[in-house]
Amino acid sequence: MKNRLTTTAICLTFFIIGNISFIQGVSPDKHNEVKGNKRTSYCAGDWPDKIAKVQPVPITNTKVSGYLGKRIDRNLESLILGLESPIPKGFEAAVAGTEQSKYRLAADSDLYKWLEGACYVFIQTGDKALKKEIDRITDMIIEVQEDDGYINAQVNQKKRWDPDVKHDLYIAGHLFEAAVAHHRATRETRLLDAASRWADYQIKEYFNENEYYHTTALREHSEYELGLLRLFRATGNEEYLNFSKILTKELCKVDGPTMTQVEAGGGTHAVRVGYLLAGMADIYLETGSEEMIKHLPELWDYINNTSTYVTGAVGSHGEDYSKHPYDLPHERKDHNSRHLAETCASVAHIMFTWRMHAIDPQSKYFDAIEKTLYNHYLGAISLDGKGSFYYNPMRVVGDLSNKSDHGFVPMCARCMLPQVNRTSCCMTNCWRFMGALPEYLYSYDEEGIYVNLYSGSKTSQTLKDGRKVDLSVETKYPFDGKVRVMFTGKKETQFNLRLRIPGWCETASAIWPEQDEKIVEGGKYLQIDRKWKNGDSVELQFEMPVRMVELNPKVKADSGHVVFGKGPLVYCLENEDVTFPVEKAMVYPLKAEEVSERVTEKWYPDLLEGIHKLSVPGRVDEQEVDLTLVPWFARASRSDNARWIIYLPQKDGN
Question: Rounded to whole angstroms, how far apart are CA atoms 110 and 341?
């Protein structure tokens, strides 16, 4: 065994509210290297540049405003409120030596995800109250750790390597990621050292032939792959990288580009599959291993073309992918929580997709991220950021008296903090994802910058050769298709600006200095390689007419149905806007070319923080009616007794 990381003087880029300041020093963090006179500080997207074609612009270099900024900012208050939930209670009881309450969480990993998200938010805000809680949680984790490195605060797990719990590796993986985030946010190494001790213990047990690795671990929840890899990056200890590769090869399987050839934890659980594929993509980015990348591009295409809902959701059979392509039911009538489209699954799939973009920066990857982000993911989270759905069925109708959202009642309302679902993984995953989201907006390479997601924002990134690129984005996206991207650097700079033209957009135009209006193609990056001076800008116009979203005719459940969209958003019918049960509604038969004439839209600035409503001609019991649709993400925000349908029938038989 190599010696663990010893305490080392470090320094990271640090964001102080309203200002970006760079502090120089020596860091053990392998990929947070000094470049020129600035220090890069990757947080969630920390892969090296030796294989990756692009890297994310770090959190410290981007300030997000606009619509996404509003949703990101609410993460701070949500995190603080989360500490009033049962999430920290296990550790608090373990430290105090008292009996934990009867309401116990599934795993310690929920608190680790809270900590990871809190560290990302602290990097952006410098909030002192949050830092105090970060310190308190860190102290508890370290105090609970046993002499050999093992950590477990759950009284419901009576022994290590418990074959009934099956989460020893998974839980550790989340601590590893939290420890890396903590190290990068605070410049401390104490939690990183604790994580290293736990990893050392696991490696020792593996080579001591602990039977867990040959039995129960085959049903383990993926996450350890990515956690170990990121721990290696933060410490430089190659044993963690090697152990990540060993476990990935021995415990999981990806033998081909279809879901019948994938096993994560012994099956196709959508979260486990997403974490596994994200880990494999990241190992490839670290090592260049062809074994890891061999099936990933085709498998990503398979998932997105055959196993993804119109909202970007995945997981159609319980929490699993179906083994069969195009098998996407709108609900589970046979289950008391109608469980499909788990929120965690969307996070895991986005994490995988983000790494595919690093490997091959095609616009289709951020088209997919955008669809999932604005619809499934933000639709799972309450507008104020303080609640979430565990499952997100496309159709919620009828008598729900015996139904729940993974233990939370009613199933048609989000579970609001300080309450959490019986398994609280989704809310905690949202904290860490929203904390990391600023790193998704921009990426860069040797030639310039990619703009991947559109929201009001400012960013500054120094390229490898020292050229500095400063940009600002002004837009009301996703509700308006006008976007202005401006170069704000003081020095005239040559670089390639790549602007994603969304795949949903049939008509888009762009104007920039010395270029008249140019019609540009959707589903690609518009590349503008020129010398930019201060104030130069590109004016983008993405036309956003109401449209019928193209559905795959191979999906049986979609047959005879239509979905309406505007821009990146998809819409649903909710009981708040009708006087009849939503399941009775039918859309008057429309052709795609008739939508612009027959469907109207109106902006309501004071409703649900500002949304468009659509008015669609329909029928109920043979009577003509206007069906009022709202964005899917805003459903269940006006009532705790919501009903909704997103796939609207055009004929009887649903």
Answer: 20
List of residues 6+ apart from 92 with CB closer than 8 A: 140
Lowest mean pLDDT of 367-371, 475-479, 545-549, 590-594, name the range.
590-594
Residues 172-199 pLDDT 10s: 999 999 999 999 999 999 999 999 999 9
pLDDT digits (tens, 9 = 90+) for 281-326: 999 999 999 999 999 999 999 999 999 999 999 999 989 999 999 9
Report how far residue 565's alpha carbon sits from residue 583's, in angstroms, rounded to the nearest whole number: 19
CB atoms within 10 A of CB 467: 17
C-alpha span between 440 and 380 (Å, rounded) = 19
pLDDT of residue 319: 92
Q: Is 526 helix (H, G, I), strand (E, B) or coil?
A: strand
CA dist 119 and 131 (Å) reads 8
pLDDT above 90: percentage of residues in the chain: 82
CA distances to 36, 103, 377, 416 from 380, rounded to whole Å, are 42, 24, 5, 12
Do residues 82 and 430 make contact, with C-beta atoms less than 8 angstroms apart?
no
Q: Are strands 493-501 and 448-451 parallel, antiparallel or unpaired?
A: parallel
Using a cut of 0.70, tell me whether the model's pTM lies above it: yes
- Hey, how many other C-beta atoms are within 10 angstroms of the C-beta on 603? 11
Residue 263, SS3 per DSSP: strand
* CA distances, 419 to each of 379, 388, 554 (Å): 19, 10, 40
Round the average pLDDT of the chain to a whole number and report it. Answer: 90
The first and second tokens of residue 557, run together, are 């459940």
H helical segments located in 340-380: 343-359, 363-371, 378-380
Which DSSP helix (H) or strand (E) runs through 15?
strand 14-16
Question: What is the C-alpha to C-alpha distance for residues 345 and 222, in angstroms, rounded to an integer?
Answer: 12
pLDDT of residue 422: 80
